[in-house]
Design a protein that fits this description.
The complex is a heterodimer. Chain A is an alpha/beta fold. Chain A is built from 5 helices and 10 strands; from the N terminus they run αβαβαβαββαβββββ. In chain A, the strands form 2 sheets. In chain A, strands 2-1-3-4-5 form a 5-stranded parallel beta sheet, with helices on both faces. Chain A is globular and about 60 Å long. Chain B is of the alpha/beta class. Chain B has a single domain, classed as Glucose-6-phosphate isomerase like protein, domain 1 (Rossmann fold). Helices cover 56% and strands 11% of the residues of chain B. Chain B is globular and about 65 Å long. The chains are: A alpha/beta, B alpha/beta. Chains A and B meet through helix 1, helix 2 and helix 5 of A and helix 1, helix 2 and helix 7 of B.
Chain lengths: 248, 222
């Protein structure tokens, strides 16, 4: 039976590393919900998984568990829809393989939107740092999205997230690492921004979205900008423009 | 913040709790334990339903070979699993694409039927419009007793469809209804674990159908 891949469950659907990743992602997600986040779910290739994650959080199967704001984003232009939907402090979960350009582009822009990201997939892993949390099924079997492995993953994410709500002391947002002597705005650190609108005239800055909200940024150094450009900002000025690795 | 009386489960629960390490270790351990139970249930389900999967897979293949179509449906999370199953038949990563689609996918149709007639008919009325003898109806449920699914299976049988149900717990109405040709009951009390096993049984059903379609094709060519 050449068409039949044996995906019968082995003894370790979730190994030690993946269980640690799940634990970390669950606590992060619980903390974000505790602070008022909405969860946005994208899965351009496997749309039903996006809907399943959302309904899981909105209408829990366990009676008595609180309903949480989660929404599947399934418009044709994933990047455009996610950009408009998200607010700083929100969370995006993607169910996609590492080759999904739209998802990779969302992940690249997420820091400028102030969004924490969780990437569920299988096959080759995304590059390090591509997403805040990576929950990866260790297999190359192309049938994986239809065998329940992803369903197990987001079921566990939901179950563990609700366990975290029983530990209120651990839900407070981590204090930003911003001591007096090292501050983002006065250190050498560049912040990621996404251009919303180019300068209205030669005397104005470009309107740019960052994790802190919208601000005007001097773009003299990098020249003309267009909406969607990703830029590094330091001290109110754009220092450099990030390359278009995935297009958008 | 939680109205649930579950403090006894976590003796260290404390609003002043500051060290996340013990919780993270517990969460990871819990994830592994639940995954082990999921795998056990999947293996037990495949063991229990192996012969039925073979029989149903063969019947599905015969119907597709004769030009039949598959309609899948379910409620809530099961509606998304029904759509995943339909996508597996219609657009598999490998194998032969087959005419399958999910009846929960069109919000205009669902809301029109739900609003004008009632939610119980949202799937059965669609089968009245689309289904022909020789088609296949697949219902996914964790209780086995949802009225809208049962109405559609009964309607499907009336119209000469092969009727297949996925159920959970003790199987509910689906497991005993004479209108259901094959009912795959996943014996668990956990809706999550039931859905995870249903996905794998559904995958095996697809693989078996593909295998028999291939055999039918070779048989007719020789």
């Amino acid at each position: 039976m050449s068409t039949v891949h044996d995906v019968a469950a082995g003894p370790s659907l979730i190994d030690a590393d993946l269980s640690a990743d799940l634990a970390g992602a669950s606590l992060a997600l619980a903390r974000r919900f505790h602070s008022g986040a909405t969860l946005w779910v994208i899965s351009p290739q496997w749309e039903p998984h996006a809907h399943h994650v959302a309904v899981e959080f909105v209408h829990p199967v366990v009676v008595g568990k609180r309903a949480l704001p989660a929404v599947a984003l399934v418009a044709a232009d994933t990047v455009a829809e996610t950009r408009i939907a998200t607010r700083p402090g929100d969370v995006v979960i993607a169910v996609a393989d590492a080759a999904d350009n739209a998802v990779a582009d969302v992940m690249r822009r997420a820091p400028a939107w102030g969004v924490e990201t969780i990437w569920i997939g299988y096959g080759e892993r995304p590059p390090p740092g591509a997403s805040d949390h990576v929950l990866w099924v260790p297999t190359d079997d192309p049938m994986t999205p239809a065998t329940g492995r992803f369903v197990l993953m987001y079921h566990l994410l939901w179950e563990l997230t609700h366990v975290c709500f029983e530990h209120p002391g651990l839900l407070k947002a981590a204090e930003p690492e911003c001591a007096d002597d090292v501050c983002i705005t006065c250190s050498d650190e560049g912040r990621l921004g996404e251009v919303v609108a180019p300068p209205a005239d030669i005397m104005s800055g470009a309107l740019v979205r960052t994790a802190e909200g919208e601000e005007y940024v001097d773009t003299m150094v990098i020249g003309d900008v267009v909406p969607g450009d990703l830029i590094l900002i330091h001290g109110g000025a754009a220092l450099t423009r990030l390359g278009e690795e995935f297009g958008s | 913040m939680s109205g649930e009386n579950t403090d006894f489960l976590y003796p260290f629960i404390d609003a002043q709790e500051t060290d996340a390490a013990p919780l993270l270790a517990d969460l990871a351990s819990s994830a592994r334990g639940k995954a082990t139970e999921s795998a056990r249930l999947q293996a037990a389900s495949l063991e229990e339903w192996g012969p039925q999967i073979e029989e149903a897979g063969r019947a599905i293949a015969e119907r597709f070979a004769a030009g039949g179509r598959m309609y899948t449906f379910g409620n809530g999370g099961s509606s998304t699993d029904a759509e995943t199953l339909a996508s597996l038949f219609a657009r598999p990563a490998h194998g032969r694409p087959l005419a399958a689609r999910c009846l929960a996918a069109d919000q205009a149709v669902i809301t029109a039927l739900g609003n004008d007639i009632g939610f119980d008919v949202v799937f059965s009325r669609q089968l009245m419009a689309h289904a022909r003898p020789g088609d296949i109806a697949v219902a996914l449920s964790t209780s086995g007793s949802s009225e809208d699914l049962m109405a559609a299976l009964v309607e499907g049988r009336r119209r000469g469809l092969l009727t297949i149900g996925f159920s959970g717990h003790d199987g509910g109405r689906m497991a005993v209804a004479e209108e259901v040709d094959h009912c795959f009951t996943i014996r668990s009390q956990s809706i999550h674990r039931i859905q995870e096993s249903q996905a794998l049984v559904g995958y095996r059903l697809w693989a078996t159908a593909q295998h028999h379609l291939e055999a039918l094709r070779k048989g007719s060519a020789s």
